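User: Working on a comparison across species. This one is glycerol kinase from Erinaceus europaeus. Can you predict its structure so I can line it up against the others?
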Amino acid sequence: MAAAKKAVLGPLVGAVDQGTSSTRFLVFNSKTAELLSHHQVEIKQEFPKEGWVEQDPKEILQSVYECIEKTCEKLGELNIDISNIKAIGVSNQRETTVVWDKLTGEPLYNAVAAPVSPGPSDPVAVVPSGSSVPAAGTSSVWLDLRTQSTVETLSKRIPGNNNFVKSKTGLPLSTYFSAVKLRWLLDNVGQVQKAVEEDRALFGTIDAWLIWSLTGGPNGGVHCTDVTNASRTMLFNIHSLEWDNELCKFFEIPMKILPNVRSSSEIYGLMKAGALEGVPISGCLGDQSAALVGQMCFQDGQAKNTYGTGCFLLCNTGRKCVFSEHGLLTTVAYKLGRDKPVYYALEGSVAIAGAVIRWLRDNLGIIKSSEEIEKLAKEVGTSYGCYFVPAFSGLYAPYWEPSARGIICGLTQFTNKCHIAFAALEAVCFQTREILDAMNRDCGIPLSHLQVDGGMTSNKILMQLQADILYIPVVKPSMPETTALGAAMAAGAAEGVGVWSLEPDDLSAVTMERFEPQINAEESGIRYSTWKKAVMKSMGWVTTQSAESGDPSIFCSLPLGFFIVSSMVMLIGARYISGVP
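Assistant: Here's the predicted structure for glycerol kinase from Erinaceus europaeus:
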């Protein structure tokens, strides 16, 4: 029986899927795209200060090794020979920034990420009293907001009539991307400054850190990234497909610390340790590009939305860069081979999607597990006029408004936790519609349907709400692991591996679940317009000199200061006139 099972298995391909909240390793049959086994390990996020989000690069690397070992054990229990694994692909959270010592392999700081609000149970790094930075050994995550002042300073140096940063990178100057995180590290972390001066420092996004470490680290590790990850740094020219000297000078980033840029599908190096020692690492894609490939969106105009910690909607624009006039990003979609053409995409991102569910669980405590939200929302079937704008760290596409903060509005005495849960799910859908509307205006061709993937797509209430709010069908593959699948496809198709064909006729047919709109267009439009009113009310809450800066002086508000001083003068005058001693 076991021998027969082995006989029908084709070559296998593994995929590392490293995200903001977990690491996974998955193994696929390259002939059928069937998922055979996987293992997952949760990753801690650290919040040393408000708006700061970090992760430990060593913990991330260790989680990759653990996932690989555990998955191989599970394959052994299924009587599947791991020697059939012919290649490994890497998919990763993008923009998260790591700097490490190439001689020791030790990170010089935590990975710096993008900003979310910590829950009461989230771990916080221990920071020495009075220290402005956390202890070494972390990376800068994509959600991190500490670089806002850096962005404001840099933006003053860009001529109003020549935004060379956006024209070269497709990106707005934002805290979101790696260059400003790296600039912050160079300005604020002595260990990073010293390592750069002594030619010991290497920079990379998570993919580069993992590939360098897995292929030998200090002992010959390959320092490289792929075009999709490079295109999210704000240092990469998406037209020439090279690190850009003018951009590096603008951000004052030494080019010697940058990784070599490769295609998304070629052999970068071999695994140097563990159960899969000797297996080539031959695929690398930022997570959203990986999902685009995994959804097989290879044609112009095809789009997918991934529902994870954030939401990411990508539309393939083919071999031409389309620059958005409506707040979207232009990015590299993929380059599936050294000699293959590069494809581009328009992207809109929602910072807070699955993170809002986590916030309801960890901060408000109205649910005990993420799965409970579907049950709560189903109990009421409506938000009863309650709207939730989860702008915990500002608004991303299409607004790019860092001054926004989260609000819940439209509350009545009747509102309960079920309505808030429903409003949280609606918020994810409304934000997706805002991006889709912008995409339709930029491309000029309205989408006929939306392909979806990611952990939140298992929530049927959410998927139906999305179809209702977009007023187009939502199509979900029965195998939800499209991000890992995309990385596996790129790895298996690499020259020198050749176990996965990307020819249209050879791609496996995927069964889909389809959600059709169940409300009329007028109702959909009314709900959407009310949402936009709520969004407007969320803006302008935070300024650089706001109370969030920690200034306790009442006189930081001129009107308030004037009121207090004039009141004191009037009181003294009244006492003098009345003759009161």
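For your comparison, note: The radius of gyration is 25 Å.

User: Helpful, thanks.
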